Amino acid sequence: MAGDLLASAVPRAASYTIGASKVRSLGHINDFRSAIAGLAQDEEPALIAIRRELHAHPELAFEEHRTAGVVARELARLGISARTGVGRTGVVGTIQGGRPGPVLALRGDMDALPIEERTGLAFASQNPGRMHACGHDVHSSTLLGVAAILAKLAPQMAGTVRLLFQPAEEILGGAAAMIADGALDGVDVALGFHNHPEMPVGTFGAVRGATYAACDRFRIVVRGVSGHAAYPHTTVDPIVAAAQLVTTLQTVVSREIGPLDPCVVTVGAIHGGTVHNIIPDSCELLGTVRTLSASVRMQAEAAVRRICAGTDATLRTVSELHWAPGVPPTVNDDGVLQTAIAGVTRQLGEVLVPCEASMGAEDFAMIAERVPSFVLRIGSGAAGRNDHLHNSHYQPDEACIGLGAQALAGAALELLG
User: Fold this and answer.
1) CATH (one of 3.90.1150.10, 1.10.10.10, 3.30.420.270, 3.30.70.360) for 214-324
2) pLDDT confidence bin for 14, thresholds 50/70/90
């Protein structure tokens, strides 16, 4: 992120009255700005109510049937045509502008996480072991807010807005499923967004180039020869080999990848053995590799494969490496970023704060691979709280919904020209 972006406080939008004749007569950029602010404020109570409804009924990847129903209901209320069942449980809405122009896709995700909620909120999850701990309930309601604003401004808008309410982001599969069902057909440019609780509500962020990481997973099954723990010389111990792998894999980052090239290699699980006095036949490791470039991604995979082979040669084990490629890095198009940010600042003022690329992954990357795209970061941090995403106590400041809708509507109009 460019270092010259400064944060500034963002007050809630002033009150405006927008009648039908006012919307129809909009012709100046200041009229659009005022209209967006007024419409966002008008919709904010309903958007917060929708967010709380979704929060109370979280659904996991490709199970978002109730959530998709709420989205379809709200789009119908706004008079927006919608297609359901896209990418299994996704919803696509279409807003046609009054003048010719490009097709802009706006994407928000809908799925929850397998986490037990511990917030104590009155609208806490009613589904045991499931929680909106990443804010996809916020994303869905924010995108509905953008839909409400742009639907009112459509007669004066150029081009077409395609609203993508996406399932299954948490398992990095929903974007590909929607693309396979034609959600990106004819799209010229795309805009994504994500709430960030480490950023105060009212601030926004952007990262040039790669903004989120590629995510690959691996499973290593280390096979040895079992036997009595008292006679290790008669065995081939897979647990010792697995322990050496955990340590040696850390050298991929510290001794093979350039220090200015971000890379993460994490072993998140080890399974092996049953009791204290038996050396088992096998031991399993599960892990992930995160990178921000295609070249480092390839280099890291090659290193993991070589280390497995070297450990086998040293300790007489036989390792099976199962490599599961995930999504590529999410790369912001510089031109789309510049234009979108101009729309955000035109709408809300100097609200950008410096931020860095994240080693978290996003399957919006599948969209950004196909069309010029940009992901806006929306501050959702509440004063006095330091909750993180994927946390059982996560509570975003709901003011980010209306402010996010304003920012995205401003960015969309700027991108549509």
Assistant:
1) 3.30.70.360
2) very low
**Angle between helices 29-56 and 65-77 in degrees, nearest 10:** 150
Q: Rounded distance, CA 284 to CA 269, Å?
A: 8
Q: What is the pLDDT of residues 376-388, one digit of tens each?
A: 999 999 988 878 9
Closest to 344 (Cα-Cα) out of 210, 205, 209, 207: 205
Q: How confident is the model at residue 293 (pLDDT cuts 50, 70, 90)?
A: very high
pLDDT at 24 over 90: no
> What pLDDT does residue 115 have?
98
Rg (CA), the chain: 24
Q: Output the average pLDDT for the chain.
A: 93
* Statement: the pTM of the whole predicted model exceeds 0.85: yes
User: Domain extents for the chain?
Assistant: 20-212+329-416, 214-324
**What is the C-alpha to C-alpha distance for residues 43 and 78, in angstroms, rounded to an integer?**
11
Calpha distance 117→24 (Å, rounded): 45
Mean pLDDT, residues 131-149 taken together = 98
Q: Is the pLDDT assigned to residue 13 strictly greater than 90?
A: no
Beta-bridged to residue 93, according to DSSP, are 82, 163
Question: Which position has the token pair 């119908």?
Answer: 76
Maximum separation of any 2 CA atoms in the chain, in Å: 88
CA distances from 407 to 306, 343, 348, 388, 402 (A): 47, 7, 7, 23, 9
Residue type, 83: R
DSSP line for 204-272: EE--SEEEEBEEEEEEEEEE-B-EETT-GGGSB-HHHHHHHHHHHHTHIIIIIS-TTS-EEEEEEEEEE
Q: Is 9 exposed, middle or buried (0-12, 13-18, 19+ CB in 10 A)?
A: exposed
Q: Angle of helix 334-348 relative to helix 399-416, nearest 10 degrees?
A: 120
pLDDT above 50 (res 263): yes
**Three-state DSSP string of 54-65:** HHHCCCCCCCCH
- CATH number for the region 20-212+329-416 comes to 3.40.630.10
